[in-house]
Amino acid sequence: xxxxxxxxxxxxxxxxxxxxxxxxxxxxxxxxxxxxxxxxxxxxxxxxxxxxxxxxxxxxxxxxxxxxxxxxxxxxxxxxxxxxxxxxxxxxxxxxxxxxxxxxxxxxxxxxxxxxxxxxxxxxxxxxxxxxxxxxxxxxxxxxxxxxxxxxxxxxxxxxxxxxxxxxxxxxxxxxxxxxxxxxxxxxxxxxxxxxxxxxxxxxxxxxxxxxxxxxxxxxxxxxxxxxxxxxxxxxxxxxxxxxxxxxxxxxxxxxxxxxxxxxxxxxxxxxxxxxxxxxxxxxxxxxxxxxxxxxxxxxxxxxxxxxxxxxxxxxxxxxxxxxxxxxxxxxxxxxxxxxxxxxxxxxxxxxxxxxxxxxxxxxxxxxxxxxxxxxxxxxxxxxxxxxxxxxxxxxxxxxxxxxxxxxxxxxxxxxxxxxxxxxxxxxxxxxxxxxxxxxxxxxxxxxxxxxxxxxxxxxxxxxxxxxxxxxxxxxxxxxxxxxxxxxxxxxxxxxxxxxxxxxxxxxxxxxxxxxxxxxxxxxxxxxxxxxxxxxxxxxxxxxxxxxxxxxxxxxxxxxxxxxxxxxxxxxxxxxxxxxxxxxxxxxxxxxxxxxxxxxxxxxxxxxxxxxxxxxxxxxx
Length: 621
Prior knowledge:
Elements: E1 5-10, H1 14-25, E2 30-34, E3 48-50, H2 54-63, H3 68-75, E4 76-82, E5 92-97, H4 99-111, E6 116-120, E7 123-129, E8 132-138, E9 143-151, E10 160-163, E11 166-169, H5 181-187, E12 193-199, E13 202-204, E14 214-216, E15 239-243, H6 246-253, H7 277-283, E16 291-296, E17 303-307, H8 315-322, E18 333-335, E19 338-344, E20 362-364, H9 374-392, H10 406-417, H11 441-452, H12 458-480, E21 482-483, H13 485-494, E22 504-505, H14 506-510, H15 517-523, H16 525-531, H17 536-547, H18 549-563, H19 584-593, H20 598-602, H21 609-618
């Protein structure tokens, strides 16, 4: 009935979709197995992509040939660049998406790929022979063969939904949980745990008084996520902001005795950085109000997402409390918020390729690894799909370093440190964030994608080459072109910047913090004539490169220094227990993680510089 596939991807969420596409774009024949074809790429929580550090991840996925950026550009209804008041290392694009258009575009692009087939049914287990994954078993007993399998089960593994004192099995609202996989993996020796996440109520936007809320429009200057020729957003839809109050909090507290979070019924740990409204009231008792973002679910629906009001309180408590929020006095509810518990597998059981250590050719990606967020899931799916293809073709694993991408930081953190709460990416997690900006992901990663065999990148590479060359031309112009006091001092005084006393190079002027390349262009006619050949994206990148060149060089030097340890390989069969100079705790950690390099070993929690020195001696360095 079925051919033998190269890669089977289980689950069609954000991780599963990217895993299927990345393996298919490498040339593998892929089967995407999902319980429901109508919920492919469902935005189960907030209808948005990007955000702080997450926006960088979406652009990295796009630069490596993934589809998340393309889909976002086709379905966004609002665009904002966050952290513009800070340095460019912190700038992060965020899009409000049309939830239905997002899922529909994903499905159409998947169905258009000749290397991807589909199967709609629950997968209850994997087939393992000689310690190698060779296929899947479905709920009706079908066995489908493959050379590798990627599990991207999201919140579905033994999922349990909580609303007040009610609880029932489910992977998300209206969909059943997946059973069988956790139990089988446990029998194979895998360690599992429980995590918790939640979602807010969905509201009828027709019942809200928008005049009582603060308008939150999109940026006037709209940008995109993909480096391809995707459409530029027009006709943005605004979001709104409102606040809870003491009165709202008192209403919510009436249900605390029935809260599954406070009476012990929920065992899993929830995301620290996205707490439920009841958790915020409990943890920040001194605060009289909390901000709520009122976000549309799409262009053609009145459904509203209340960002900041995630809750597992009884539905009547949620309803009465929300009706005390400004603008929500006559609110009608589509469905209440809920919490969901699900199984995950601590990611220290993975190699940096996301292949499991216990079973060859079996890969995990997304929330099964303890992460939270569409973007974190998507990038893991992309990497797992590429590495599943590489594994069955006896190619080297594709691993990004921490200095290459936020994706490299995320996977390195997961595999070396593990996580006991839902992992979310932040710019603060990346030590080389000036190198890993949102504007240069294509320059960093598209040539790498071409090198490892991702197909269909010819036009992207032409753009990368042009962009690289253009930035160098502008940088050279700034370094070589001089400006006189008569030409520039009027402009500088108008910017409250110190005038120059003698002729100097333009790069000294642009290095001043309050001077932009566009303002200089308007002030100096000859300069404007030169720059008119370049578009805004290239000018902005050139400006950042010039302004921060000293810091960028320092980060590059530090990255090169640290990456020397990545070149020192460690054999998988290395006997750490034989090294008596290491503490017992250190030996156990190294034996568990099985680091591939000295660099990876150095980043394991609790490993000291002295331990690294001892390892270097034992490998002959």
